[in-house]
Amino acid sequence: MKKIDIACIIDDDPIFIFGMKKIMKLIDFCKSLMVFRDGEEALNNLKAIISANEKLPDVILLDLNMPVLDGWQFLEEFVKIPCEKKIIIYIVSSSVDPQDILRAKSYELVSDYIVKPVTVEKLKNVLSDLKKVS
Amino acid sequence: MENDQNKKENPVAEENENYLKKELYALIKDDSTLFDFLQEAALDGLWFWDLNQPENEWMNSRFWTTLGYDPDKMPHKSSAWQHIIHKEDLKYVYANFTKHSKDPSYPYDQIVRYQHKLGHTIWIRCRGVILRDDYGKPVRMLGAHTDITEIKKKEEKLRLQSAFFKQVIDSTDLGTWQWNVKTGETIFNERWAEIIGYTLEELEPVSIETWITHTVPKDLEKSNKILQDHFAKKTPVYEFEARMIHKNGSYIWVLDKGKVVSWDEEGNPEWMVGSHQEINEKKKAYERNRLFIQQAPTAIAMFDWDMKYLAASQEWFSVFDINDKEIVGKSHYEVLPEIANKWKVSHQKCLKGKVIKNNEERVKRADGSVQWLSWEFRPWLIDENKVGGIIIHMSDITKIKQEEELKSLLAVAEDQNKRLRNFAHIVSHNLKSHSGNFEMLLDLLIQEKPEIEDNEIVKLFKTASENLTETIVHLNEVVLINTLVNDNLVRLNLREVIHKTLEIVSAIAIEKQVTINNLVKPDICVLCIPAYLDSILLNFITNGIKYSSNERESYVSLSADLEGDYVVLSVVDNGLGIDLKKHRSKLFGMYKTFHHNKDARGIGLFITKNQVEAMGGKIEVESEVNKGTTFKIYLKYEKN
């Protein structure tokens, strides 16, 4: 696997999404990108994809602080969905609170915690990690 | 015969009596109406009996009217009275008659009972004298009756009454006494002696001395005072609780009550009567109560029916600010004259058996300050239903109330602190995402158009963005300093930790030519969060290096002393010093600098202070401009 098939960003900050798109393009991060503005939107759409048996993303970049369903609530719900495909989740947050970092690590699905701002370097590291896994 | 005796006994009256008597006797001889008057008015019956013909007897009319009969219908026969006299008494009469007829010196004088016509008994004192002929043979007999029924009735009544009182006294277990105050003569009953373990016989001869020698001298003194009040008619009765000395040497509590029943012409007491009641058990129980109340750790007092003190605790004196501790026997209202009327009303209600209380009463003191009282009035009972007085229990809960207020203030402060923390958290978090975006966008901009990196505005923009990010990082550090760090404290050897820090700073120390002395003894250990201690040491040492003076050989010395539960780490330098007069208040504030040093950022001391305080310590500072600064850092001491 040279390149990530589908990546997914769940974040309510349009500037962040704009920046992420730019960086992803720069380093050729993935073939296609899904963007959801909050946890609920993401959950509903992902559920729909699963039931329609369509292609799920390989990696999710999840923000914590969001309206409606925040990152934690999304995780709580998402782990309950039966899903054959292994999706790798990165938490991408401004929070440097050690409690948040510890909590993130308690989820099996979450492979790492990235502190914003995301730079080209940081995303490159993610990419190389993903390649190692696959 | 009686007249003869009187003559002898009263010779002075002899002259007078003689001529009048003679005159009276002469008159009676001449005028039989006078005799009639005498026999009717002076006596309750007269009889004259013919002993030669014993069935003949003359009885005067009064004889019969006394017994309820019509004299006109009664025969002058001896059988008439022999029918109505009490049979047993008749035998007695015959016996006396026989004795008197044989021996004239034996008096015919007896009390006999007759049956009145209406059926009741008439008591008659019957006296008589036999008249004899020249040979001494009895021929006539003259007799006189006196009706003593009234006296007999009173006597009987008195007998009954005294039996009644005796029964009453015996059944109440009272010792009784009668005392002639003038002569000291006393009469005790058996129980009086029994109370103190004796028989009356053992105490003989009794006098007032018997009481004096068997009573505790101190009590006797008090008793005499109360007695004098009674003698002066200030009190209607004498009443006192005294300790008497029992035969076995122990004390017996006796309730001594009495009253003067007769006074002499000058108004001095003569006879006094009274009783002794053994009240040992009651008194002991009361003494126990009294002791208990005196020792009670709260304000408590016991009053009698008249609101007079029976006992009061030490706390009572301090709550009411009473200086005179001799209050037993004094009225509550006399001790506290300014007491409010509503309390008096409550006392009266309580005396009627009601329990009254208030757990929180706000009282304004005379000086205007507020006092909080919790109080209870409770009646105490003598017998099952009789209230003997009240017990007042009162606590000054002002301190507790103040503590409660303090606690609620503390809760408010805690709540505000929590909200502040929450606020700081959100601010730092939200600011961070925005500054992150700035950084990211700038980064992307430069990636896309590398040539603009040299643009002055973009350069300044980048600096501003970096400063913002840094500020937010600091803010976050402060927010994250947890005040509840006890679980994370680790035992650290202070000298070793300093040694490691010195390795990090050695380069700049050499550059600035500052000597650093680690004078901390090797065995001193502190309780710290390792990262905090590292940060604290680094801050103080680098500060010392940064603000060293170029005018002299600079040094920073670290030493440690024990002070109670703390290790006091002193960081002493001979550098630029700080003008504490100007800067003390903001020394540990955020973004405060006191030197025109280009490296100064003013965040170090702020974070350091927070970290030290989070670990339960404190920082003190002494400084003199251009002489140097000493920081004293208090850290928790770990003994072993």
Write a compact overview of the structure shown.
The complex is a heterodimer of chains A (134) and B (640). Chain A has helices at residues 14-27, 39-51, 71-78, 98-105, 120-133, and strands at 4-10, 30-36, 59-62, 88-93, 110-115. Chain A is α/β, with parallel strands linked by helices and 134 residues long.
Description of the structure:
The complex is a heterodimer of chains A (134) and B (640). Chain A is of the alpha/beta class. Chain A has a single domain, classed as Rossmann fold (3-Layer(aba) Sandwich), CATH 3.40.50. Chain A contains 5 helices and 5 strands. In chain A, helix 2 packs parallel to helix 3. The longest helix of chain A has 14 residues. Chain B is rod-shaped. By secondary structure, chain B is of the alpha+beta class. In chain B, the strands form 4 sheets. In chain B, strands 16, 17, 18, 19, 20, 21 and 22 form a 7-stranded mixed beta sheet that branches. At the A-B interface, helix 1 of A face helix 16 and helix 17 of B. Chain A: Keywords: Phosphoprotein.
